[in-house]
Protein backbone atom coordinates (compact mmCIF):
# COMPACT_ATOMS: atom_id res chain seq x y z
CA UNK A 1 0.00 0.00 0.00
CA UNK A 2 1.46 3.37 -1.04
CA UNK A 3 1.99 6.28 1.27
CA UNK A 4 1.94 9.83 -0.07
CA UNK A 5 3.11 9.85 -3.71
CA UNK A 6 5.97 12.30 -4.13
CA UNK A 7 6.55 12.43 -7.86
CA UNK A 8 8.33 14.09 -10.75
CA UNK A 9 8.07 13.53 -14.50
CA UNK A 10 9.91 13.14 -17.78
CA UNK A 11 8.48 15.71 -20.20
CA UNK A 12 7.25 13.82 -23.25
CA UNK A 13 5.18 16.32 -25.23
CA UNK A 14 5.05 15.53 -28.96
CA UNK A 15 2.77 18.06 -30.74
CA UNK A 16 3.26 18.97 -34.37
CA UNK A 17 3.53 22.53 -35.67
CA UNK A 18 4.00 24.12 -39.12
CA UNK A 19 0.79 22.42 -40.35
CA UNK A 20 2.06 19.01 -39.34
CA UNK A 21 5.49 19.33 -40.96
CA UNK A 22 7.49 19.65 -37.72
CA UNK A 23 7.34 17.35 -34.70
CA UNK A 24 8.24 18.93 -31.34
CA UNK A 25 9.66 16.07 -29.28
CA UNK A 26 10.63 17.12 -25.75
CA UNK A 27 12.32 13.81 -24.94
CA UNK A 28 14.63 14.47 -27.89
CA UNK A 29 15.32 18.14 -27.20
CA UNK A 30 15.87 17.55 -23.47
CA UNK A 31 18.24 14.63 -24.06
CA UNK A 32 16.23 11.87 -22.43
CA UNK A 33 16.60 9.35 -25.27
CA UNK A 34 20.36 9.42 -24.80
CA UNK A 35 20.47 9.86 -21.01
CA UNK A 36 17.48 7.94 -19.67
CA UNK A 37 19.57 5.74 -17.33
CA UNK A 38 21.18 8.83 -15.85
CA UNK A 39 17.76 10.47 -15.49
CA UNK A 40 16.45 7.47 -13.57
CA UNK A 41 19.54 7.64 -11.33
CA UNK A 42 18.58 11.23 -10.54
CA UNK A 43 15.02 10.20 -9.67
CA UNK A 44 16.40 7.67 -7.19
CA UNK A 45 18.83 10.19 -5.73
CA UNK A 46 15.94 12.52 -4.93
CA UNK A 47 14.21 9.77 -2.96
CA UNK A 48 11.29 9.69 -5.41
CA UNK A 49 9.44 6.38 -5.93
CA UNK A 50 6.79 7.60 -8.43
CA UNK A 51 7.53 8.91 -11.91
CA UNK A 52 5.23 10.35 -14.56
CA UNK A 53 6.67 8.68 -17.64
CA UNK A 54 5.60 7.27 -20.97
CA UNK A 55 7.19 6.07 -24.19
CA UNK A 56 6.73 8.51 -27.09
CA UNK A 57 3.49 7.63 -28.85
CA UNK A 58 4.68 8.59 -32.33
CA UNK A 59 7.70 6.26 -32.08
CA UNK A 60 5.82 3.36 -30.44
CA UNK A 61 2.50 3.26 -32.32
CA UNK A 62 3.58 2.88 -35.95
CA UNK A 63 0.24 1.91 -37.50
CA UNK A 64 -2.96 0.07 -36.69
CA UNK A 65 -1.77 -2.93 -34.67
CA UNK A 66 1.92 -2.12 -35.39
CA UNK A 67 4.19 -1.30 -32.46
CA UNK A 68 7.86 -0.70 -31.74
CA UNK A 69 8.42 -1.60 -28.08
CA UNK A 70 12.23 -1.32 -27.96
CA UNK A 71 12.49 1.94 -26.00
CA UNK A 72 9.53 1.06 -23.77
CA UNK A 73 11.04 -2.36 -22.95
CA UNK A 74 14.38 -0.82 -21.99
CA UNK A 75 13.05 2.06 -19.91
CA UNK A 76 10.10 0.40 -18.20
CA UNK A 77 12.18 -2.68 -17.49
CA UNK A 78 14.76 -0.49 -15.79
CA UNK A 79 12.12 1.33 -13.73
CA UNK A 80 10.75 -2.03 -12.64
CA UNK A 81 14.21 -3.19 -11.52
CA UNK A 82 14.60 0.00 -9.53
CA UNK A 83 11.11 -0.43 -7.99
CA UNK A 84 10.08 3.03 -9.21
CA UNK A 85 6.34 3.08 -9.87
CA UNK A 86 5.56 4.68 -13.25
CA UNK A 87 2.42 6.69 -13.85
CA UNK A 88 2.34 5.86 -17.54
CA UNK A 89 1.55 8.79 -19.79
CA UNK A 90 0.38 7.24 -23.08
CA UNK A 91 -0.53 10.35 -25.12
CA UNK A 92 0.99 13.76 -24.45
CA UNK A 93 -0.26 16.50 -26.78
CA UNK A 94 0.26 14.68 -30.09
CA UNK A 95 -0.47 11.62 -32.22
CA UNK A 96 1.54 9.62 -34.78
CA UNK A 97 1.71 10.92 -38.34
CA UNK A 98 -0.52 8.15 -39.68
CA UNK A 99 -3.37 9.37 -37.45
CA UNK A 100 -2.84 12.99 -38.39
CA UNK A 101 -4.45 15.03 -35.63
CA UNK A 102 -7.29 15.10 -33.13
CA UNK A 103 -9.95 15.80 -35.77
CA UNK A 104 -9.58 12.18 -36.91
CA UNK A 105 -12.60 10.14 -35.67
CA UNK A 106 -10.51 6.94 -35.86
CA UNK A 107 -8.20 8.13 -33.08
CA UNK A 108 -10.22 6.78 -30.10
CA UNK A 109 -10.30 3.17 -31.30
CA UNK A 110 -6.72 3.17 -32.57
CA UNK A 111 -5.60 4.52 -29.20
CA UNK A 112 -7.71 2.00 -27.26
CA UNK A 113 -6.06 -0.82 -29.21
CA UNK A 114 -2.66 0.65 -28.35
CA UNK A 115 -3.58 0.90 -24.66
CA UNK A 116 -4.72 -2.73 -24.66
CA UNK A 117 -1.47 -3.85 -26.30
CA UNK A 118 0.51 -1.83 -23.78
CA UNK A 119 -1.35 -3.32 -20.82
CA UNK A 120 -0.81 -6.84 -22.17
CA UNK A 121 2.90 -6.25 -22.63
CA UNK A 122 3.45 -4.63 -19.21
CA UNK A 123 0.94 -6.30 -16.87
CA UNK A 124 2.78 -5.05 -13.77
CA UNK A 125 1.99 -1.40 -14.65
CA UNK A 126 -0.95 -0.21 -12.56
CA UNK A 127 -1.04 3.61 -12.74
CA UNK A 128 -1.92 5.41 -15.98
CA UNK A 129 -2.61 8.85 -17.41
CA UNK A 130 -4.03 7.70 -20.77
CA UNK A 131 -4.30 11.19 -22.30
CA UNK A 132 -2.50 14.06 -20.60
CA UNK A 133 -4.34 17.38 -20.06
CA UNK A 134 -7.28 16.65 -22.34
CA UNK A 135 -8.71 20.17 -22.06
CA UNK A 136 -5.44 21.94 -22.83
CA UNK A 137 -4.71 19.55 -25.69
CA UNK A 138 -8.05 20.38 -27.33
CA UNK A 139 -7.76 24.13 -26.65
CA UNK A 140 -4.21 24.53 -27.98
CA UNK A 141 -4.82 22.27 -30.99
CA UNK A 142 -8.29 23.37 -32.10
CA UNK A 143 -9.33 26.60 -30.36
CA UNK A 144 -6.08 28.61 -30.28
CA UNK A 145 -4.68 27.12 -33.48
CA UNK A 146 -1.24 26.45 -32.02
CA UNK A 147 -0.60 22.70 -32.45
CA UNK A 148 -1.52 19.63 -34.47
CA UNK A 149 -4.60 20.51 -36.58
CA UNK A 150 -3.94 24.22 -35.85
CA UNK A 151 -7.61 25.15 -36.07
CA UNK A 152 -9.35 27.94 -34.21
CA UNK A 153 -13.09 27.44 -33.96
CA UNK A 154 -15.64 26.15 -31.49
CA UNK A 155 -16.59 23.33 -33.86
CA UNK A 156 -12.97 22.20 -34.22
CA UNK A 157 -12.55 22.41 -30.44
CA UNK A 158 -15.62 20.28 -29.73
CA UNK A 159 -14.50 17.76 -32.35
CA UNK A 160 -11.03 17.48 -30.82
CA UNK A 161 -12.46 17.33 -27.31
CA UNK A 162 -14.95 14.54 -27.99
CA UNK A 163 -12.29 12.45 -29.75
CA UNK A 164 -9.67 13.04 -27.04
CA UNK A 165 -12.00 12.23 -24.14
CA UNK A 166 -13.48 9.22 -25.91
CA UNK A 167 -9.94 7.98 -26.51
CA UNK A 168 -9.22 8.37 -22.80
CA UNK A 169 -12.39 6.49 -21.81
CA UNK A 170 -11.85 3.70 -24.34
CA UNK A 171 -8.23 3.35 -23.22
CA UNK A 172 -9.34 3.00 -19.59
CA UNK A 173 -11.80 0.30 -20.60
CA UNK A 174 -9.13 -1.54 -22.58
CA UNK A 175 -6.57 -1.39 -19.76
CA UNK A 176 -9.09 -2.61 -17.18
CA UNK A 177 -9.65 -5.73 -19.27
CA UNK A 178 -6.03 -6.67 -18.56
CA UNK A 179 -5.45 -4.95 -15.20
CA UNK A 180 -8.73 -4.79 -13.24
CA UNK A 181 -7.12 -2.86 -10.37
CA UNK A 182 -5.65 -0.18 -12.66
CA UNK A 183 -5.85 3.37 -11.33
CA UNK A 184 -6.17 6.34 -13.68
CA UNK A 185 -4.70 9.70 -12.66
CA UNK A 186 -6.20 12.26 -15.02
CA UNK A 187 -3.62 15.10 -14.90
CA UNK A 188 -5.85 17.94 -16.04
CA UNK A 189 -5.15 21.65 -15.97
CA UNK A 190 -7.10 23.38 -13.20
CA UNK A 191 -8.21 26.77 -14.52
CA UNK A 192 -10.12 29.83 -13.41
CA UNK A 193 -11.33 32.87 -15.37
CA UNK A 194 -11.75 36.20 -13.55
CA UNK A 195 -14.08 38.86 -14.97
CA UNK A 196 -12.15 42.09 -15.56
CA UNK A 197 -15.33 44.23 -15.43
CA UNK A 198 -19.09 43.79 -14.99
CA UNK A 199 -19.41 43.49 -18.77
CA UNK A 200 -16.96 40.57 -18.68
CA UNK A 201 -18.99 38.50 -16.19
CA UNK A 202 -20.93 36.55 -18.82
CA UNK A 203 -17.94 35.55 -21.00
CA UNK A 204 -16.05 34.60 -17.82
CA UNK A 205 -18.99 32.43 -16.71
CA UNK A 206 -18.98 30.63 -20.07
CA UNK A 207 -15.24 29.97 -19.82
CA UNK A 208 -15.57 28.76 -16.24
CA UNK A 209 -18.21 26.28 -17.40
CA UNK A 210 -16.19 25.22 -20.43
CA UNK A 211 -13.07 24.45 -18.32
CA UNK A 212 -14.92 21.45 -16.83
CA UNK A 213 -16.01 19.88 -20.13
CA UNK A 214 -13.20 17.33 -20.47
CA UNK A 215 -13.63 15.98 -16.95
CA UNK A 216 -17.44 16.15 -17.04
CA UNK A 217 -17.42 13.94 -20.14
CA UNK A 218 -14.67 11.70 -18.83
CA UNK A 219 -16.46 11.07 -15.55
CA UNK A 220 -19.92 10.71 -17.09
CA UNK A 221 -21.26 13.85 -15.42
CA UNK A 222 -24.10 15.75 -17.08
CA UNK A 223 -22.96 19.17 -18.27
CA UNK A 224 -25.05 22.26 -17.57
CA UNK A 225 -27.69 23.35 -20.08
CA UNK A 226 -25.56 26.10 -21.63
CA UNK A 227 -22.66 23.72 -22.22
CA UNK A 228 -25.04 21.08 -23.59
CA UNK A 229 -26.27 23.56 -26.18
CA UNK A 230 -22.68 24.57 -26.93
CA UNK A 231 -21.69 20.95 -27.56
CA UNK A 232 -24.76 20.23 -29.72
CA UNK A 233 -24.38 23.47 -31.68
CA UNK A 234 -20.78 22.57 -32.50
CA UNK A 235 -21.08 19.05 -33.79
CA UNK A 236 -21.52 16.66 -30.88
CA UNK A 237 -24.46 14.32 -31.39
CA UNK A 238 -26.83 13.06 -28.71
CA UNK A 239 -25.46 9.57 -29.30
CA UNK A 240 -21.89 10.79 -28.73
CA UNK A 241 -22.93 12.64 -25.57
CA UNK A 242 -24.69 9.58 -24.21
CA UNK A 243 -21.58 7.48 -24.83
CA UNK A 244 -19.91 9.46 -22.04
CA UNK A 245 -22.89 9.21 -19.70
CA UNK A 246 -23.08 5.46 -20.26
CA UNK A 247 -19.37 4.65 -19.81
CA UNK A 248 -18.65 6.04 -16.37
CA UNK A 249 -15.36 4.82 -14.88
CA UNK A 250 -15.00 7.45 -12.19
CA UNK A 251 -14.56 4.81 -9.47
CA UNK A 252 -11.17 3.88 -10.98
CA UNK A 253 -9.84 7.45 -11.03
CA UNK A 254 -7.80 9.97 -9.09
CA UNK A 255 -8.37 13.63 -9.96
CA UNK A 256 -4.97 14.93 -11.06
CA UNK A 257 -4.90 18.74 -10.97
CA UNK A 258 -2.11 20.74 -12.60
CA UNK A 259 -1.47 24.33 -11.55
CA UNK A 260 0.89 26.97 -12.89
CA UNK A 261 1.18 30.73 -12.57
CA UNK A 262 -0.62 30.93 -15.94
CA UNK A 263 -3.69 28.88 -14.92
CA UNK A 264 -5.71 31.89 -13.80
CA UNK A 265 -6.92 34.38 -16.38
CA UNK A 266 -8.44 37.85 -16.63
CA UNK A 267 -11.31 38.06 -19.09
CA UNK A 268 -12.20 41.15 -21.12
CA UNK A 269 -15.80 41.85 -22.09
CA UNK A 270 -15.02 40.89 -25.71
CA UNK A 271 -13.72 37.48 -24.61
CA UNK A 272 -10.00 38.21 -24.81
CA UNK A 273 -7.99 36.69 -21.96
CA UNK A 274 -4.54 37.12 -20.49
CA UNK A 275 -2.72 35.57 -17.55
CA UNK A 276 -3.69 37.09 -14.23
CA UNK A 277 -1.03 35.35 -12.17
CA UNK A 278 -1.88 33.64 -8.93
CA UNK A 279 -5.10 35.12 -7.51
CA UNK A 280 -6.97 32.26 -5.81
CA UNK A 281 -4.11 29.77 -5.84
CA UNK A 282 -3.99 26.00 -6.09
CA UNK A 283 -5.95 25.10 -2.95
CA UNK A 284 -8.98 27.26 -3.73
CA UNK A 285 -9.26 26.17 -7.37
CA UNK A 286 -8.73 22.52 -6.44
CA UNK A 287 -11.56 22.84 -3.91
CA UNK A 288 -13.81 23.79 -6.83
CA UNK A 289 -12.77 20.70 -8.81
CA UNK A 290 -13.02 18.41 -5.79
CA UNK A 291 -16.46 19.80 -4.95
CA UNK A 292 -17.60 18.97 -8.47
CA UNK A 293 -16.17 15.44 -8.76
CA UNK A 294 -15.62 14.19 -5.20
CA UNK A 295 -12.51 12.18 -6.08
CA UNK A 296 -9.15 11.83 -4.32
CA UNK A 297 -6.80 14.55 -5.54
CA UNK A 298 -3.18 14.51 -6.69
CA UNK A 299 -1.23 17.65 -7.58
CA UNK A 300 0.13 16.28 -10.86
CA UNK A 301 2.08 19.23 -12.27
CA UNK A 302 3.61 22.49 -11.17
CA UNK A 303 6.76 24.50 -11.76
CA UNK A 304 7.98 28.03 -12.26
CA UNK A 305 10.93 29.37 -14.20
CA UNK A 306 14.07 30.03 -12.23
CA UNK A 307 14.83 33.74 -12.47
CA UNK A 308 17.63 36.14 -11.59
CA UNK A 309 17.50 35.47 -7.85
CA UNK A 310 17.85 31.71 -8.25
CA UNK A 311 15.25 31.08 -5.52
CA UNK A 312 12.06 31.50 -7.53
CA UNK A 313 11.56 27.74 -7.87
CA UNK A 314 12.28 27.13 -4.19
CA UNK A 315 9.70 29.73 -3.15
CA UNK A 316 7.07 28.38 -5.57
CA UNK A 317 7.68 24.83 -4.34
CA UNK A 318 7.10 25.96 -0.76
CA UNK A 319 3.92 27.81 -1.74
CA UNK A 320 2.45 24.86 -3.68
CA UNK A 321 3.35 22.45 -0.87
CA UNK A 322 1.62 24.75 1.64
CA UNK A 323 -1.47 24.60 -0.57
CA UNK A 324 -1.35 20.78 -0.64
CA UNK A 325 -1.10 20.66 3.15
CA UNK A 326 -4.03 23.06 3.42
CA UNK A 327 -6.21 20.76 1.31
CA UNK A 328 -5.32 17.75 3.43
CA UNK A 329 -5.87 19.64 6.67
CA UNK A 330 -9.44 20.54 5.67
CA UNK A 331 -10.22 16.91 4.87
CA UNK A 332 -9.80 16.76 1.09
CA UNK A 333 -8.07 13.45 0.32
CA UNK A 334 -4.87 14.56 -1.41
CA UNK A 335 -2.62 11.63 -2.27
CA UNK A 336 0.38 13.03 -4.14
CA UNK A 337 2.48 15.97 -5.30
CA UNK A 338 4.54 16.44 -8.47
CA UNK A 339 7.21 18.91 -9.49
CA UNK A 340 7.19 18.75 -13.29
CA UNK A 341 9.66 17.99 -14.68
CA UNK A 342 12.91 16.26 -13.69
CA UNK A 343 15.00 18.42 -16.02
CA UNK A 344 14.66 21.79 -17.66
CA UNK A 345 12.47 21.84 -20.76
CA UNK A 346 12.78 23.59 -24.13
CA UNK A 347 10.82 26.32 -25.91
CA UNK A 348 7.88 26.53 -23.53
CA UNK A 349 8.29 30.33 -23.61
CA UNK A 350 6.30 30.09 -26.85
CA UNK A 351 4.20 27.10 -25.69
CA UNK A 352 6.11 24.89 -28.17
CA UNK A 353 4.78 26.93 -31.11
CA UNK A 354 8.35 27.64 -32.25
CA UNK A 355 11.59 25.68 -32.14
CA UNK A 356 14.08 28.31 -31.04
CA UNK A 357 16.31 26.12 -28.87
CA UNK A 358 15.66 28.23 -25.77
CA UNK A 359 15.88 26.51 -22.40
CA UNK A 360 12.84 26.74 -20.12
CA UNK A 361 14.52 26.64 -16.68
CA UNK A 362 11.88 24.80 -14.66
CA UNK A 363 13.57 21.48 -13.85
CA UNK A 364 14.87 19.94 -10.65
CA UNK A 365 18.04 19.53 -12.73
CA UNK A 366 19.38 21.49 -15.67
CA UNK A 367 19.98 19.88 -19.07
CA UNK A 368 23.56 19.00 -18.05
CA UNK A 369 21.95 17.05 -15.18
CA UNK A 370 23.24 19.40 -12.46
CA UNK A 371 20.85 19.74 -9.54
CA UNK A 372 19.16 23.14 -9.21
CA UNK A 373 18.18 24.89 -5.96
CA UNK A 374 14.59 23.68 -6.34
CA UNK A 375 15.90 20.12 -6.75
CA UNK A 376 17.79 20.37 -3.48
CA UNK A 377 14.73 21.85 -1.78
CA UNK A 378 12.44 19.10 -3.13
CA UNK A 379 14.85 16.39 -2.01
CA UNK A 380 14.85 17.86 1.50
CA UNK A 381 11.06 18.28 1.50
CA UNK A 382 10.61 14.62 0.62
CA UNK A 383 13.06 13.52 3.33
CA UNK A 384 11.29 15.70 5.92
CA UNK A 385 7.70 14.73 5.11
CA UNK A 386 7.78 11.19 3.72
CA UNK A 387 7.44 9.38 7.04
CA UNK A 388 5.55 12.07 8.94
CA UNK A 389 2.80 12.90 6.49
CA UNK A 390 0.73 9.69 6.38
CA UNK A 391 0.48 9.54 10.18
CA UNK A 392 -0.64 13.16 10.44
CA UNK A 393 -3.39 13.10 7.83
CA UNK A 394 -6.91 11.77 7.57
CA UNK A 395 -6.19 11.01 3.91
CA UNK A 396 -6.96 7.62 2.47
CA UNK A 397 -4.17 5.29 1.35
CA UNK A 398 -4.11 4.46 -2.34
CA UNK A 399 -3.92 0.69 -3.03
CA UNK A 400 -0.83 0.83 -5.24
CA UNK A 401 1.11 -2.37 -5.91
CA UNK A 402 4.81 -1.44 -6.33
CA UNK A 403 6.64 -3.02 -9.29
CA UNK A 404 8.73 -5.20 -6.96
CA UNK A 405 5.57 -6.70 -5.46
CA UNK A 406 4.15 -7.76 -8.82
CA UNK A 407 4.90 -11.27 -10.04
CA UNK A 408 3.40 -10.68 -13.50
CA UNK A 409 6.04 -11.18 -16.21
CA UNK A 410 6.32 -8.71 -19.04
CA UNK A 411 5.12 -10.02 -22.40
CA UNK A 412 8.61 -9.68 -23.87
CA UNK A 413 9.98 -11.87 -21.06
CA UNK A 414 7.32 -14.45 -21.86
CA UNK A 415 8.34 -14.29 -25.53
CA UNK A 416 11.98 -14.99 -24.62
CA UNK A 417 10.99 -17.91 -22.39
CA UNK A 418 8.72 -19.37 -25.10
CA UNK A 419 11.51 -19.12 -27.65
CA UNK A 420 13.89 -20.85 -25.26
CA UNK A 421 11.38 -23.66 -24.65
CA UNK A 422 10.89 -24.17 -28.38
CA UNK A 423 14.64 -24.35 -28.81
CA UNK A 424 15.00 -26.91 -26.02
CA UNK A 425 12.28 -29.12 -27.49
CA UNK A 426 13.65 -29.10 -31.02
CA UNK A 427 14.58 -32.52 -32.41
From TrEMBL:
Q: Which GO terms describe its biological process?
A: carbohydrate metabolic process
- Secretion signal, residue range per the UniProt entry: none
Q: Which UniProt keywords apply?
A: Hydrolase
Please give the superkingdom of this protein's source: Bacteria
Q: Which GO terms describe its molecular function?
A: hydrolase activity, hydrolyzing O-glycosyl compounds
InterPro entries per UniProt: GH (IPR017853), Glyco_hydro_1 (IPR001360), Glycosyl_Hydrolase_39 (IPR051923)
A Pfam family this chain is assigned to: Glyco_hydro_1
What PANTHER family does UniProt report for this protein, alphabetically? ALPHA-L-IDURONIDASE, BETA-XYLOSIDASE-LIKE PROTEIN-RELATED
Mind telling me what this protein is named?
Answer: Glycosyl hydrolase family protein
